[in-house]
Design brief:
The protein has 15 helices and twelve strands. By secondary structure, the chain is an alpha/beta fold. It folds into two domains: 296 residues, 3-Layer(aba) Sandwich (Rossmann fold), CATH 3.40.50.1460; 84 residues, Topoisomerase I, Chain A, domain 4. α10 packs across α11. The longest helix is centred in the C-terminal third of the chain and has 32 residues. The N and C termini lie far apart (81 Å). 49% of the residues are buried.
Length: 487
């Protein structure tokens, strides 16, 4: 009996010593109680299954260079991280690398001193194949619903991890596409719910770069479908372009356009440097949040947000985007060691920077100078037309005093943009039929249309008022509706 007690005491002593030392053990071999105490998600860093990535640049045009540059850079991170091309699906219009305006034909850069990020990128869906229907079909793994392109879809299983990265213009409740219609928040979240109901992923992470990108998930994304989302901005502010002409650091002098977006550059340059087997989603979120806010000064920049299943953010980034073996020796450091720009450009004004730079550089009296002047005047005329038309419609509906208040009202945090998304889309069509296309700039007014719906006004009434406000559609290419409606 005494010998048995001694053996038991010795075993207990060994166990207690091991328990005290256990914090140094890998999270994957901790006891479930210890994982819970450490705040780790159930199944954190589960290496079982396949890693999938869907990368989408939702714009076209050389003035939107940065969105395709972002996506190409993201691809290079995934590729170095060990993801296979068969599991990476890329949407990009592909009109930048070989554009006559590109000073380095066949090359795309995402940093002033950066190398080519275009090389090797699989162009799964290009041109008009970059559309909402194809994106949703790819995400749902529905091969029969895809039109054109490589035909690749996220053919995932219940143990797989999915990473989605979307870079483009946006507005309250809406994300741009180079082809119409645009992508609306309710439709995206419904697709995510459908994907979850199908049981074809273990967890999904969504990184979103766009103005008012928080509104895509605010009040819409459930916290129980294993989707974790971060956004470049909250529901009521713009996101920002970076590495733009006139900034520090500035792009090479031959570039007239921004090379990247502030939030996107923050997460990707962090991923380029750190060992992603030891860095968690939450750690990256905090670093990106700090850098994107100009270290909480907001002299420029935006509020990076997170939505959905926040318990997933303790997982390591390598579970989704892999990790570059060259970074294995790099230790994560709390506090942002990555450089910040001294300035940034509001995402909605980045095209104006491009058009102005292009005009400024050309010789006086040259045919090119006149064409550049015409482009600049047209884009400014479109902006003025959209702003004035929406403002007048608000005044006609609610009066000159109440109109601005109703159109600009922002709902409380946690509430969705609009109660009736069908009303919002009908409202947009009613406006565009009378006043012309909203285009990428006009997406900023989606909140106004949502507030009109929330006030109980029917689209038919707006159509009548819009006909009074807009006696004709301007002839510039931005306002033209020949490409279709955005809703």
């Amino acid at each position: 009996m005494m010998a048995a007690r001694l053996r038991l005491a010795l075993l207990l002593s060994v166990f207690l010593c091991a328990a005290r030392a256990r914090p140094s053990l890998e999270p994957t071999i901790r006891l479930p109680s210890e994982r819970a105490a450490a705040g780790e998600a159930e199944g954190a860093d589960d290496a079982v299954g396949t890693r999938w990535a869907v990368l989408i640049a939702g714009s076209n045009g050389y003035y939107n260079y940065r969105h395709q540059a972002d996506i190409c850079h993201a691809y290079q991170i995934m590729k170095k991280g060990g993801l296979k091309d068969e599991n990476i699906i890329v949407f990009m219009y592909d009109d930048i690398a070989h554009s006559p305006e590109n000073p380095r034909p066949g090359v795309i850069i995402n940093h002033p001193q950066g190398g080519d990020v275009y090389a090797g990128v699989p162009k799964d869906y290009t041109g008009r194949e970059v559309n909402v229907n194809n994106f949703f079909a790819v995400l749902l793994g529905n091969k029969t619903a895809v039109s054109g392109g490589s035909g690749k879809v996220v053919d995932s299983g219940p143990n797989d991890h999915i990473f989605v990265y979307y870079s483009d213009h946006g507005g309250p409740g809406v994300l741009g596409m180079p082809t119409y219609p645009y992508l609306y928040g309710d439709d995206l979240v419904n697709v995510l719910k459908k994907k979850h109901a199908a049981g074809t992923y273990k967890s999904l992470v969504f990184y979103l770069e766009a103005c008012e990108s928080g509104s895509i998930f605010e009040g819409l994304l459930p916290n129980n479908i294993n989707v974790y989302a971060t956004t470049a901005s909250n529901a009521d502010e713009s996101s920002w372009g970076t590495y733009c002409p006139g900034e520090n650091p500035s792009p090479p002098p031959e570039y007239d356009t921004c090379l990247g977006d502030l939030y996107s550059i923050a997460w990707m340059e962090d991923s380029d440097f750190h060992n992603l087997q030891t860095e968690s989603l939450k750690q990256q979120y905090n670093l990106v949040k700090d850098r994107t806010s100009a270290h909480n000064t907001y002299t420029y920049g935006s509020h990076v947000m997170q939505y959905g299943s926040l318990n997933l953010n303790v997982q390591h980034l390598s579970s989704y985007i892999g990790t570059n073996p060259a970074n294995d020796g790099n230790k994560f450091v709390e506090g942002n060691s990555l450089p910040s720009s001294t300035r940034a450009v509001n995402q909605r004004d980045a095209d104006l920077v491009y058009f102005w730079q292009k005009y400024r550089k050309l010789a006086e009296g040259s045919p090119g100078k006149n064409d550049a002047r015409k482009e600049l005047l047209e884009v400014m005329a479109h902006r003025s037309h959209v702003d004035n038309s929406v403002e007048l419609i608000g005044s006609l509906l609610f009066g000159s005093e109440d109109g601005p208040r109703v159109l600009k009202a922002v709902r409380a945090a946690g509430e969705p943009l609009v109660d009736d998304w069908s009303c919002l889309k009908s409202m947009v069509r009613a406006f565009e039929a009378q006043c012309g296309s909203l285009a990428q700039y006009g997406m900023k007014h989606m909140r106004s249309f949502a507030n009109i719906c929330n006030a109980g006004i029917l689209p038919e009434a707006v159509s009548k008022v819009a006909a009074q406000a807009c006696t004709s559609i301007p002839s510039n290419p931005w306002s033209s509706i020949h490409k279709g409606f955005s809703a």
